[in-house]
Automatic annotation (TrEMBL):
Coiled coil: none annotated. PPR repeats lie at residues 204-234, 235-269, 336-370, 371-405. This is DYW domain-containing protein. Belongs to the PPR family. PCMP-H subfamily. GO terms for biological process: RNA modification. The lineage of its organism: Eukaryota, Viridiplantae, Streptophyta, Embryophyta, Tracheophyta. The keyword Repeat applies. Residues 550-642 form the DYW domain. It comes from the Eukaryota. InterPro entries: DYW_dom, E_motif, PPR_At4g14850-like_plant, PPR_rpt, TPR-like_helical_dom_sf.
Length: 642
């Protein structure tokens, strides 16, 4: 333990000199722990110097804002101060507002300050108070604070106004946010007439950033983009807000397009930019761009912390490179459960159940406590591997250690039971679970009914789904497919007529492949690509070679009433087959192909891909809606269980 130098000349407070006060301040500022700070405090009490205003205020600041802060101790120091000044009040309000379980105390402390009347709040008081309102989403309290901002003459202070605007945004009140924003940007509230234009411009950029973030939070990406495009000047925060907004709301291509445009405008991405764009890269499987992001971070000495590291692990895993994901994971500190969850989720998606169990054991040995997300990854791994008993065991273990199962955990169990054909048990689990079911969990059961051709339970699941999500095509399509697989074409026609009446359209099959950093998208029977003619020729070549190998199209996968020849033609032009054909004509021999598909891969395409990987000596990786399939030398990593 470091020692504290208490050899400071003893002086009576009334005879204290500036030099002596500076020595005391230095002693306080060099403390490395709360214990050291308390020793200095004891010395000050012993020498009757604890009430010297400058010294007492610095002692308060250290105890409230340092890395080793102790808020309760800071409050006791504040109570000792005969006449705390505005800085002392502000220090405590800010510390309370920034402590996760104390924002309400910050508001109460501010109320005491105002009601006491001895000290008036200043421009540094209100931002912390408004932050507390934001954290607590107390809009009505925030509006009262707004009134005090006007009363004390700070409605024209750009620092206060930006925090006031952020409060309205965080509370979801975009109408009042817009009014305040327009007044501020138009200059009505900017009272300082001598303010330099550059400073004013920077202030407006801050306000615009807050509004863009607000529109993103409420899901109004159109308004966010319109404001973003109108900004005369943008900071990296502006770009980050828009990129993150697109990525979080499923507009992955737009997020990546904006990321490229940001660099074209000579604005360097920062750590937040990379964390924001990586989920979009992951979803589209754009691994070359993901590698560039990783290299950019290393070359620019951007610290790969838990957040960025976890995003990189997730990106590599979802782009099909689980080996690289593990490599990045091993280079991280691994001190955060989020990092472990990223690798566990990635391994589960790749069907590596044994590795999931091994990594989970490592995690427990390292002293990291699992979260509820950890168990989602584990149960998902059990589901992909068909390990029913193991899944039940982990589910019970999760409950025994104190976790309350979420809908996602029950969803994994329903998926696990449904895959192996325990449909009745899966249905009973849904009906008896203590939380309300959602459309996702019923879709899992309905999907299992389709695989196992169980019309009775499938019809029940579809009926519930149509009530929960009446305009979602999933239930109608799945039920139609179940009827079609059993040859009940009248029932198929009835379901399709219902879809037509409700204007419900099936989501088209879509696949993506990245070639030389460019993402190419293909739909079923897509002939819109510039290379459509060459793709068609390659599809014909693939078909001929497959037939030579003894392959016969599995027309039972075409759940439409048509002749066999037409069914074979439909299978021929599934989106993943078109993507593979394009990959074969666009890359050199033996180059691995990686494809992302928005729907579950059908049995016919699965069988075809195994043979194509053998015929063309290619490793083909396909990520469908559920998991990864690694095709190589005529076999698949899923062992035909998916």
């Amino acid at each position: 333990m470091s020692s504290i130098n208490m050899n400071i000349p003893l002086l009576h407070p009334k005879t204290s000199t500036p030099h002596h006060s500076q020595l005391l301040l230095t002693q306080i500022r060099t403390c490395q722990s709360m214990q050291e700070l308390k020793q200095v405090h004891a010395f000050l009490i012993k020498t009757a110097q604890n009430h010297e205003p400058v010294v007492a205020t610095e002692l308060l600041r250290q105890s409230a804002t340092s890395d080793f802060r102790d808020i309760d101790y800071a409050l006791s120091l504040f109570d000792e101060m005969p006449e705390p000044d505005c800085f002392a009040w502000n220090t405590l309000i800010r510390a309370l507002a920034e402590t996760h379980d104390r924002p309400l105390h910050a508001l109460l402390f501010f109320c005491n300050m105002v009601s006491d009347g001895m000290v008036e709040p200043n421009r540094f008081t209100f931002p912390s108070v408004l932050k507390a309102c934001s954290v607590l989403t107390r809009l009505e309290v925030g509006k009262q604070v707004h009134g005090l901002v006007v009363k004390f003459g700070f409605s024209g202070d750009e620092f206060v106004v930006s925090n006031l605007l952020r409060m309205y945004v965080m509370c979801g009140n975009m109408e009042d946010s817009h009014v305040l924003f327009r007044r501020s940007v138009d200059g009505v509230d900017y009272m300082n007439k001598v303010m330099r234009d550059k400073r004013r411009e920077e202030g407006i950029v801050v306000l615009c950033n807050v509004m863009v973030d607000g529109y993103v939070r409420v899901g109004n990406l159109t308004a966010a983009r319109e404001l973003f495009d109108r900004m005369h000047k943008r900071s990296v925060v502006s770009w980050n807000a828009m990129i993150s907004g697109y990525a979080q709301n499923g507009y992955f291509s737009e997020a990546i397009e904006l990321f490229h445009r940001m660099q074209m405008e000579d604005l360097l991405p920062n750590r937040v930019t990379l964390v924001s764009v990586l989920p979009a890269i992951s979803r589209l499987g754009a691994i070359e761009l993901g590698k560039w992001v990783h290299l950019y971070a290393e070359r620019n000495k951007i610290k790969i912390d838990d957040a960025l590291g976890s995003a990189l692990v997730d990106m590599y895993a979802k782009c099909g490179s689980i080996g690289k994901a593990i490599q990045v994971f091993e280079s991280l500190p691994k001190s955060n459960v989020i990092t472990w969850n990223a690798i566990l989720g990635g391994l589960a998606m790749h069907g590596k159940a044994k590795d999931v169990f091994d990594f989970f054991a490592r995690m427990e040995r390292s002293g990291i406590s699992p979260s509820d997300v950890t168990y989602i990854a584990i149960l998902s791994a059990c589901s992909h591997a068909g390990l029913v008993d193991k899944g039940r065991s982990y589910f019970n273990h999760m409950v025994n250690v104190g976790f309350v199962p979420r809908i996602e955990h029950y969803g994994c169990m329903v998926d696990l039971l449904g895959r192996v054909g325990y449909l009745e048990e899966a249905k009973e689990l849904i009906l008896n679970m203590p939380i309300k079911s959602d459309d996702v969990i019923w879709k899992a059961l309905l999907g299992a009914c389709k695989v196992h051709k169980n019309v009775e339970i499938g019809r029940r699941a579809a009926e519930v789904l149509m009530q929960l999500a009446p305009h979602d095509s999933g239930a109608y399509v799945a039920m139609s497919n179940i009827y079609a697989s059993s040859g009940d074409w009248d029932a198929v026609a009835e379901v399709r007529l219902m879809m037509k009446d409700l204007d419900i359209r099936k989501d088209p099959g879509c696949s993506w492949i990245e070639i030389d950093g460019v993402i190419h998208e293909f739909l079923v029977e897509d002939d819109s690509h510039p290379s459509a003619k060459e793709i068609h020729s390659m599809l014909e070549e693939i078909s001929n070679k497959l037939n030579f190998e003894g392959y016969r199209p599995d027309t039972t996968q075409v759940l439409l009433k048509m002749d066999e020849t037409h069914k074979e033609s439909v299978l021929h032009y599934h989106s993943e087959k078109i993507a593979v054909a394009f990959g074969l004509i666009s890359t050199t021999p033996k180059t691995p192909l990686q494809i992302v598909k928005n729907l579950r891969i059908c049995k016919d395409c699965h069988s075809s891909m195994k043979l194509i990987s053998k015929i063309y000596n290619r490793k083909i990786t396909i990520r469908d809606r559920k998991r990864f399939h690694h095709f190589e030398h005529g076999s698949c990593s899923c062992m035909d269980y998916w």
